[in-house]
Amino acid sequence: FKISLDAIGEDVTATSLGSASFHMGGGFGTAYPPPGEVAGLRFTDKATLVWDPEGSVGIYNLYRDLLSNLVGLGFGNCQQQELAAATATDADAVPPTDGFSYLATAENRLDEEGTKGFQSSGTERLGTVCP
Fold first, then answer.
1. Which end of the chain is more exposed for a tag (fewer CB within 10 A), N or C?
2. Candidate CATH numbers 2.60.120.620, 2.60.120.200, 2.60.40.10, 2.40.160.60; the one for domain 34-107
3. Quick one: residue 56, left, alpha or beta (phi over 0 = left, psi -120 to 50 = alpha)?
4. Rounded distance, CA 46 to CA 36, Å?
């Protein structure tokens, strides 16, 4: 016969496995916090966007819309999805009489997508989601 011990989110024993190059918690079912708001979205050159890493991330999604659509509370359509790192490239030409607005969101490993942020009124930004 075979006996195995398992724990969901907690250690069965008071020890954990780890070294300088890896760490494994004691529980087999890892807790995934809900994704937070992505902050610090900025350009590093004409086509490369970066943002601050979000702690619960599995992947990121990038939304883009025309600046002229912000008046109608458009917060963008899914431009790029399932980005593994906190960076994206958009080399599309900017319309001469308009511009682009960008929002990045984080998804945790349970496929829960974080917020696009909040409007000045305090209500959450809604809109389309990446498939």
1. N
2. 2.60.40.10
3. alpha
4. 27
Contact 98, 68 (CB under 8 A): yes
Alpha-carbon distance of 33 to 68, in angstroms, equals 35
Count CA within 13 A, CB hemisphere, residue 64: 15
Q: Which residues is 63 bridged to in the sheet?
A: 78, 103
Name the nearest CA neighbour of 97 among 64, 65, 68: 68
Average the pLDDT over 84-103 and give the result.
Answer: 94
Q: How far apart are CA 130 and CA 89, in angstroms?
A: 17
Quick check: pTM over 0.70? yes
Q: What is the pLDDT of residues 27-37, one digit of tens each?
A: 544 567 889 89
